[in-house]
Specification:
Layout (H helix, E strand, L loop, with lengths): L2 H8 L54 H16 L10 H8 L3 H13 L3 E4 L3 E4 L10 H8 L4 H23 L5 H19 L3 H18 L3 H5 L1 H9 L13 H16 L2 H12 L16
Length: 295
C-alpha cells in the first residue's frame, strides 16, 4: 500500500464551515411577532431538549457542534414531515426549545435555506418549503430521506441514479491515461482487501467511497464529477442490501479489482461491464431496476 493511499484514508478532511458572511445573520430576525393571519408555530412535542442526544449526524453537519446538531435535528423533522410545508419556524422559540443561542439558530436556518428546506422573507418570517423546492441532491437531504418515511423511495432513486452515472463514468475513465489517479484507484482496492481480511468495515467503506469518487474524477467529465456527492451519500446510506458496495465481501472486492484492472488496461467495455456487475451483485436489485423490455 502506498504512503499516499494510507495518508489519504486516515487524514481528516476539513469541512466547509457553513458560517454566514457579514450581514447575513440579520436575515433571520430572532424575535418574530406573529401577525393576525399567521399560522400557529409548530409544537415541539419531543421531551428531549438536549441537542447532544441527537442520533445520526451526516457529513454536511458533522463536526460543527450545536450548530451542526440543530441543522441535523430540524432537517430531519422537515424531511420526515414532522414540520410540514408552510409551517412557520420562529427563531426565538427554536432557541428556547433546544437551549441554543440566537447565533446558532440563525446559522442553522441559513444552512437549511441553502438546502431549499426553508425560506425567510420580510413580513412573512421563516417557513418550511414544499418538497418540490428541496435540493434533493444535497448529501444531507439524501441521508435524512433514507432514514425517514421516504426511505424506500430514496434508496430506489439513488440506485437508479447510480445505475445511470457510474457505468458511464467507468467507460469514460478507461479512456483517460491518468496514471496517478489510476494508481490511487488501485490503492483503494488494496486497502479494501486489507480491511476485509481484518474485518474492518469502517476502513473498507472509506476506501470504497474514495474508489468511486476517484473513478468519477478520472472520467474527465465535470458535470459527472459534480454528481459524485450523490454516489458518496448513497454509499453511506445503510439499509437492506442493494448493491455490491453495501457490505464488505470477496465478491464485491473482486468486482472492484476488475474495474481497476480494466481502467489500467484502457478497456472501456470491460470497465463498464464490471461496474454494472458490481451494482447488481444482489438479487434484490431486480426489484429496483427491471430487465429491459423485449420489443
Amino acid at each position: 500500500m502506498s504512503t499516499l493511499a494510507h495518508t489519504m484514508m486516515t487524514a481528516a478532511r476539513p469541512a466547509d464551515s457553513g458560517l454566514a458572511g457579514p450581514g447575513e445573520l440579520d436575515r433571520y430576525p430572532y424575535a418574530e411577532s406573529p401577525g393576525p393571519d399567521r399560522v400557529s408555530p409548530p409544537a415541539w412535542d419531543s421531551s428531549e431538549t438536549e441537542l447532544g442526544r441527537v442520533g445520526r449526524r451526516t457529513a454536511g453537519s458533522r463536526g460543527r457542534g450545536l450548530h451542526g446538531q440543530l441543522v441535523q435535528q430540524l432537517g430531519q423533522m422537515i424531511v420526515s414531515g414532522d414540520l410540514g410545508a408552510d409551517r412557520p419556524l420562529v427563531p426565538e422559540e427554536i432557541g428556547q426549545r433546544f437551549e441554543v443561542s440566537r447565533t446558532v439558530v440563525r446559522e442553522s436556518l441559513r444552512v437549511l435555506e441553502a438546502k431549499g428546506l426553508v425560506s425567510a422573507r420580510p413580513n412573512v418570517g421563516t417557513r418550511v418549503r414544499p418538497v418540490s423546492d428541496w435540493n434533493l441532491l444535497d448529501p444531507d437531504i439524501i441521508e435524512w430521506r433514507a432514514f425517514g418515511p421516504q426511505r424506500d423511495d430514496q434508496r430506489r432513486e439513488l440506485f437508479e441514479l447510480r445505475w445511470t452515472i457510474e457505468p458511464l463514468a467507468a467507460r469514460l475513465a478507461a479512456g483517460h491515461s491518468r496514471e496517478d489517479i489510476q494508481q490511487r484507484v488501485a490503492d483503494m482496492v488494496e486497502i479494501m482487501g486489507h480491511a476485509l481480511a481484518q474485518n474492518d468495515g469502517i476502513t473498507f467503506s472509506r476506501a470504497d467511497t474514495e474508489f468511486h469518487a476517484l473513478l468519477i474524477q478520472l472520467a474527465g467529465n465535470r458535470m459527472l464529477e459534480h454528481l459524485s456527492g450523490i454516489v458518496s451519500a448513497a454509499l453511506q446510506v445503510s439499509g437492506g442490501p442493494v448493491t455490491g458496495c453495501d457490505r464488505p465481501n470477496e465478491v464485491s472486492l473482486a468486482h472492484h479489482a476488475r474495474i481497476a484492472d480494466a481502467l489500467a488496461a484502457g478497456d472501456a467495455h470491460a470497465a463498464e461491464s464490471a461496474m454494472r456487475q458490481l451494482l447488481t451483485v444482489h438479487p434484490e436489485v431486480e426489484r429496483v431496476v427491471p430487465a429491459p423490455r423485449e420489443h
